[in-house]
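Lab notebook, bench 4. Still working through the backlog of constructs that have no structural model yet. Next entry is a single chain of 194 residues. Request: give me the structure tokens for it.
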Amino acid sequence: MPLLDRREFRWLNEPPEWSLAEDRLEVVTGGSTDFWRQTHYGFVRDSGHFFYREAAGDFTATVRFHGDYETLYDQAGLMLRLDAETWIKAGIEYSDGVQNLSVVVTRGFSDWSVLPLNEAPDEVWLRVSRHGDAVRVEGSLDGIRYQMVRLAYLPPGVPVQVGPMACSPQRSGFRVAFESFRIGEPISPELHAG
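Model written out:
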């Protein structure tokens, strides 16, 4: 069975162009697409492209991806979503001329954290783990060594939607490819392995 079986996944805001083959999802974004709520900008956007399936309990989701980042706020990665007001998106976001490891946590209002990357990587691995009420977001440039980017709260005990996400608030036509997306058993919740 393909890792991204279209019978198990659904679109929130299906993109104008996309293709799916085995474990590779290619997306071309629509214009003015984003996920954001209120903070700083004063608007609500719930128009980004999100290819998801439901996951319950604790889990770890991973994906490898690359995109043609060139316009402010081009972004791709993973999303965990309870509803339109409660979600986390994480991945790469293009800002100030560089790719940034980026996390937005939303509980009614969005917040945003970024970690600028010194060089534009060819591809990025992202790992998001849910442990009870905590979500740990980690990034990697080689798929082996992961660095924690964020530890955030997400209400426990309820299933979430999880999967690849892509947006382009300032344009249409942002191309991104996701590969090797998996949802599996959670990694250890230990943050400081000795």
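Notes after review: The chain has a mean pLDDT of 95. The CA atoms of residues 78 and 149 lie 13 Å apart. Flag for follow-up if needed.
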